[in-house]
Amino acid sequence: MTSLPPQPLSPLDGRYKSAVTGLADYLSEAGLNRARVEVEVEWLIALTDRSLFGSKPLSDGDKAKLRALYQDFGQAEIDWLAEREAITRHDVKAVEYLVRDRLEQLGLGAIAELTHFACTSEDINSTAYALTVQRAVSRVWLPKLRTVTELLADLAQKHRDAPMLAHTHGQPATPTTMGKEIGVFAWRLQRVIRQIESTEYLAKFSGATGTWSAHLSAEPGVDWPAVSGAFIRSLGIDFNPVTTQIESHDWQVELYDRARHAGGILHNLATDVWTYISMGYFTQIPVAGATGSSTMPHKINPIRFENAEANLEIAGGLFATLAQTLVTSRLQRDLTDSTTQRNIGVAFGHSLLALDNLQRGLGEISLSQTALDADLDSNWEVLAEAIQTVVRAEIVAGRSKISDPYALLKDLTRGRRVGAPELAEFVRGLDIGEAAKDRLLALTPATYVGLASRVVDEL
């Protein structure tokens, strides 16, 4: 058997590439290297702006040419770095050589020795990861999460008044509305989104073991922590001044735990909507030309929610592993974080794919109020809660002598179906005031939804 032509090993780079392509601009190897070049270039500009070691500030034209190294970063640079890393066996060193090479080409060789000045690889890496993760989250992943959350909020508003039998423990329970139940997911996600939006994206820039030793050796008169902090903040990220050789990754642990939490909520949504579809509460809108089953032509399978469920489980597992691994580094540095961080894009990729499936799936369902009404009308016994609560209030008010209202309703309804006529007859025979009887007799399962519609307004 002959070998296949080169193929993507991951479905994120094959079957599902179009759904996650935006992340590759930031969380791919090329995206990371582009950010590394950006950090190297901006650090060189920051040093010359301060006229350190006899250098002079670069002209605006020279700065623009230098910044073009990362702004126009493309296939030529990707190939150059691949060839050089095959020799250096060190990815960050290859980036340094790329910048030096381009400085010579630009006629700026006189400042080449300021490239990577006093930096350890993790100064560049921690800054590059902070930049790429921040941009991937804020520009690609988080907007998609917001889109799905807003779609849920819209569906909650649309169905705010659609009465529905609740199912606690899988059993008929006090009615609610479909809008309120969908609104719960939107509310939960909004809260986690606010936490994710507050993420600190931290970088260190303090040398081999976080002490600025090399910096001070070269120029003792400079406040290097202040210089480093100002430089990192100028890039739009946050500075961590107290580190070992690496930035401690705690911000990443926090972010991935929150992303996993959001995924757990979305997983709950996917399984609930799947269940509502199986119960007939939602019908699926046929897509022209689509096949539900290879042998059963009638079927429309809820594949969007099933795919979302599976991809959220993969993403959640990866986020958990990232958080667990990155929180620890032996002594002043070990390399377990290096290969681990290369999977950040995989984790966000599966999460983004799940979000894409949820967005599509939620747009392909329609509420069946007929099914909801039929279920409500078959479960009048759920009004037992209302009846026994009203009886208790009547006892306190002195309008009833019933001794144990809960037991009374339990005997009537537990484990059995009670229809409207039986319940009405039962209410009429209760020892309670006439006004209370009238309120209870006016209730139906469809109207016993309390403030469910009002709860939606909290969104």
TrEMBL record:
It comes from Phenylobacterium conjunctum. Keywords: Lyase, Purine biosynthesis. Its EC number is 4.3.2.2. PROSITE patterns: FUMARATE_LYASES. Catalyzes two reactions in de novo purine nucleotide biosynthesis. Catalyzes the breakdown of 5-aminoimidazole- (N-succinylocarboxamide) ribotide (SAICAR or 2-[5-amino-1-(5-phospho-beta-D-ribosyl)imidazole-4-carboxamido]succinate) to 5-aminoimidazole-4-carboxamide ribotide (AICAR or 5-amino-1-(5-phospho-beta-D-ribosyl)imidazole-4-carboxamide) and fumarate, and of adenylosuccinate (ADS or N(6)-(1,2-dicarboxyethyl)-AMP) to adenosine monophosphate (AMP) and fumarate. One of its GO terms (molecular function) is lyase activity. PANTHER family: ADENYLOSUCCINATE LYASE. It is an enzyme of class 4 (lyase). It comes from the Bacteria. This is Adenylosuccinate lyase. Pathway: Purine metabolism; AMP biosynthesis via de novo pathway; AMP from IMP: step 2/2; Purine metabolism; IMP biosynthesis via de novo pathway; 5-amino-1-(5-phospho-D-ribosyl)imidazole-4-carboxamide from 5-amino-1-(5-phospho-D-ribosyl)imidazole-4-carboxylate: step 2/2. InterPro entries: Fumarase/histidase_N, Fumarate_lyase_CS, Fumarate_lyase_fam, Fumarate_lyase_N, L-Aspartase-like, PurB_bact, PurB_C. Residues 61-308 form the Fumarate lyase N-terminal domain. The gene is purB. Residues 329-449 form the Adenylosuccinate lyase PurB C-terminal domain. The keyword Lyase applies.
